[in-house]
Amino acid sequence: MEKYKFVAEYELRASPKVLFPYISTASGLSQWFANKVNVRPDHQFDFFWDNESHLARQVSIRQNKSVRFEFLNGNGSSEEHNYIDFRVDVSELTQSTFLRITDYSSNADADELKSLWNSLIDKLKEIVGS
Questions:
Q1: Is the pLDDT score of 58 beyond 70?
Q2: CA 102 from centroid of its chain's CA atoms
């Protein structure tokens, strides 16, 4: 199945130190990104959406900068894994904080993805007071 890379950038009025726990920890992610998130051994995160479990491995993390979750497809195939990458950047010019999201998956509907991420980010902005 062909993969699609969706990239979006959102400005948030929150420092990287405030924002980072919401994109890198199970408790933070469960407040806006998934219904529930549990941490398992070996940096595995269990994301629950609509009562379905989706296992992901935290493949990279840079404190207050970025985190990437690679979803495990469970069938042992060599096909490329879906992933979500969260990257926090601060504009040197304006001192604004930006969250860049890369969603690499088989969902190729750009409008649906944009709508989904806009609604998730609205929830995140509410939580961080942005």
A1: yes
A2: 8
